[in-house]
Amino acid sequence: MTTASKTAIPTEHASRYLQQLCKHFAHKRPVTFDEQAGEISFSIGDCRLKADGSALHIDLTAPSADDMEQLKDVVIRHLVRFAFREELAVDWQDA
Prior knowledge:
Layout: E1 3-10, H1 14-25, E2 31-33, E3 37-42, E4 45-51, E5 55-62, H2 65-82, E6 93-94
Antiparallel strand pairs: 1-5, 1-6, 2-3, 3-4, 4-5
């Protein structure tokens, strides 16, 4: 049984952050992306990203609740590093 969670983070720099995250993880993980969408496959789950003019949308799936918590932490910790110039509001909605 898999778990799922999603968030939409308001930012005018969604495309930039999506590309930075994907490029960063592409060195060690399977990644596909363009300016508007991306996918990162982790050993603990998958991360799908979409960028629009007002938000970065993140959809996560993981095999267990523990993996989901770890996946959320990894993705957001890296995102916060790239977005250090702004305060990001992250509100996860678990499915």
